[in-house]
Amino acid sequence: MIPYGKQNITQEDIQAVTEALKGDYLTQGPTILAFEEAFAQYIGCNYAVAVSNGTAALHLSAMVLGVSEGDKVITTPLTFAASANCIRYCGGEVVFSDVDSQSYLLDLNKVEKLLEASPKGTYKGIIPVDFAGAPVNLEALKALAKKYNLWIIEDACHAPGGYFIDSLNNKQNCGNGNFADLAIFSFHPVKHIATGEGGMITTNDEKLYHKLLALRTHGITRDASLFKNSVALANGITTSKGEGYPGWYMEMQELGFNYRFTDFQAALGISQLARADEGIERRKSIAKKYEKSFLHKEYIKGQSGYIEGHAYHLYIIEVIDRLGLYNHLKANNIHAQIHYIPCHLMPYYQELGWKENDFPQVETYYKQCISLPMYPTLTDEEQDFVIQIIEKYYA
Q1: pLDDT of residue 305 exceeding 90
Q2: Cα(111)–Cα(204) distance, integer angstroms
Q3: What is the pTM of this model?
Q4: In contact, 51 and 258? CB cutoff 8 Å
Q5: Is the CA virtual torsion 165, 171, 175, 178 positive or negative?
Q6: C-alpha span between 160 and 171 (Å, rounded)
């Protein structure tokens, strides 16, 4: 079977996890911090917070930015539902905006028209998605967000290792925090870095970083400088004469969640991170071959193409007779995938008022899109077979 995506677990990965399992900590131990620091260095940001999955990362990001009942937040309908759901978890209102026909990313011109149509202050923030690994131009988006006083959560689940070139010709890594308030990543098995489940939040904002740490663990802090109760109460004594807060003491200061990461996942993450660049280069090589193979073919209605800063989590083509091709590939043991059913057409969001024909570009794309096998261990022979089967079908 040739799947659309697949984890790559090496002997080094297995050894790293084995060593972690033999250690003193399975959770809340030093390996988590080591992974966070290594990931922050890789991305080029100041802080990173590891959490249980990418959805948890989105939820905590929305929480620390203060999303509350009725707050309107803009995002793309071309994404996994979690990008929008995190706003609903906080009681906010999701407002979708259509995508660009070439990049599949949020069309900033349409976003600007959406903002212009309402008084300033109507919207609180925006969640762009680096869809398939294509980097959002966050410099341009930041200029728009600043004009309307919006925060930005960059959904970079598809794009560790991705980047764009800014107006000063500087390389800007996805998730580096130079333009977005927060960015989130996923370590699901089909992603670039796999830890089974897992996610990461990156930021350059120290205050947001400390809030994330607390909310990740039930809203609890062990930092004595932040304690609100008296030393006497903490010690369980009736006078204020104490030598300080006891070693066991902690405070739950706000309502948080158990979104913790484990040490053995972190060990796997560190091992996977060590070969992340190698994986990106292989993905780019696969993308170049796909692009060359399908260029100017009559059955191709659109394709990802090759972009230097693209992280290539997915390689997508738009084709005629998508259902026929999907079934033909499956009959030949090639398990392609469709990314994604538009969020606004999910029954939950239709019940909130969204409907067919709201976003013509996304809906046209959905009728034609198919994600081809894309992962570093895909062999040249396997990719040639995929291309051959597609060409035979349309012949």
Answers
A1: no
A2: 25
A3: 0.97
A4: no
A5: negative
A6: 14
What pLDDT does 156 receive? 98
Q: What is the domain-level CATH number for residue 377? A: 3.90.1150.10
Range of the domain at 321: 277-394
Quote the CA–CA distance of 93 and 317 in Å, as a whole number.
Answer: 32
What CATH number is associated with residue 60?
3.40.640.10
DSSP annotation of 106: B
Beta strands 334-335 and 2-3: pairing type?
parallel
| pLDDT recorded at residue 187 | 98
358 and 266 inside one domain? no
Distance CA 122, CA 93 (A): 11
* Same-domain pairing of 239 and 316: no
Count Cβ atoms within 10 A of the Cβ of residue 331 and give its class: 0-12 exposed, 13-18 middle, 19 or more buried: exposed
pLDDT tens sequence across 377-393: 999 999 999 999 999 99
Averaged pLDDT, 138-149: 98
Question: How much of the chain, in percent, has pLDDT values that exceed 70?
Answer: 99
**Of the candidates 155, 175, 153, the residue with the CA atom closest to the CA atom of residue 164:** 175
- 313/238 same-domain check: no
CA distance to 95, 264, 268, 279, per residue, from 20 (Å): 43, 5, 9, 24
Q: Please compute the mean of the pLDDT values over residues 33-47 and round it to a whole number.
A: 98
Instruction: Please spell the DSSP secondary structure of 185-225, one letter per residue.
Output: EE--TTSSS--SS-EEEEES-HHHHHHHHHHHBTTEE--GG
Encoded tokens for 341:
């059913």
Into how many domains does the chain fold? Answer: 3
Write the pLDDT tens digit of every residue in 216-246: 999 999 999 999 999 999 999 876 666 799 9
